[in-house]
Specification:
This protein is mainly α and 500 residues long. It has 28 helices and no strands.
Amino acid sequence: YLNDQKLAANVTPDQLKKLTLGSFLKGNLSVAERALIKLLYNQEYPFKKADSLLLKIGEDSRAYKLFERVLSKVDPKKIHPSLLATMIFYVAKSDVDWVRTNAIAEVYRTKNFLKDLIQREVDQLIRDKNINEAQLSKDKFCRLLGSQDSFCRKLSTLVTRARDIIEISRSRDVENLYPYIEIIKRDKYLHERLSSLLLNILQREAGRFLALKNYQKALAVISRVDPAQRTPTTHKLALQALRGLKPGSSLVLLEESVRKMVIVLSANDQRIKNAVRECLLKEIDLRVASYQLKIAERLLNLFVVISPDPNRENDLLRIKIAEAYTASGREAEADRILAAVKTGVGFKERFLILYKKITGDLYLLLSVLLIPFLFAAWLFVRRYGDLLFGQDYSEIETRRRLGIEGTPENPAGFRGAGRRGLNPMMQEYQSCLNTLGLSQSADLKSIKGAYRNQVKEVHPDLNQDVDEEGRERFLELTRAYERAVELYEELGLGKLEELK
């Protein structure tokens, strides 16, 4: 087919591809060379398929021999630059001097494609942590492109940083790795190529600290992970570290972990958010219990970042801190915290704050405790005064309030006391009773009965022959009766009758 032009016209590109690959694998480089040249010259065959064929051949260590023969015979202008760059790349890996001697023009023509291939080669070697091979490849291609090329300078920096990172990871001194992480974050070129390497190292170190139950260091390592590089493994490690972290940990560590790692990392992972919330709640409770209230406020600010306001849980934490401020006598700080409450302070919370305020002030506490004691003592005396003082204490109190002399054993002071023993209201009451013809001990029923009996004789409607003196008597009885009833109620004589 290759020698006969008529037959060769009927050969398809796919057949040429199979012929090239089969001949190369069997060691027949002559046939493979002729078939590959015809395939590369075929403008209808997609160059991507041709490029995949070259990459497959390039995996074999003998590929550079085939590519050298092809490059020495083809017309570079008739071949796609990407295919030309692939062949130059594999030849330069084995014999860079041949390329510099025989294909330097093609190198400059395909420089951009060649740089992509070189970059992929070095990146793969770094990911495999084969740093020595990466250094050799970098040296070879920099000889080809020129050491002053900006791409070579960037490649040298990449290999140097990768070597330093790998050596630090082998020494397991992960803290020395943190400055390199910051440097790489600021350089976009380095960040794109070394972030996966850093992620693997940080995940491995975090897993080692978790196995040692050193949750603080594990969380510190996870917090250094680039949020853009988060993976399910990173989420799992962060969750384990947060759940194992005990209250009383370093505040700086918590702030750094939450702000740098957890908030961004947990954007789509509710489990990590819940773990952070539980961790912060435990820490806030511990700080409030030990009256480290400024630290508790800083932790609350972190909590608010995870659960934005308005949120009742945030307000309950504010109220708890305000209660602690009140108990410690710093009411101005408590008012400041309560002013930030978004959902309102309920009756229960206000009562607890008042309780903290009372228990925090010794004198106020003693006063509040003394008031119910005095009230109970007063009730006790009212109830058991007879037993305490040996006499009817309640009746004595009633008599004293009414201004009546005498005692229950000698009630003469009540019935027959002179003017000195009565107050003005009682004197008027006695006068009304005298008008009705009643004694001092008359009750309300007796007053009403006496009035009815006496008024029948002088009532103008019942007796038509009542004279002027009778009418005056009727008015006198009526005024005495009405005033006696009023004074009976005002003086509380009905209660005195019940007491008797």
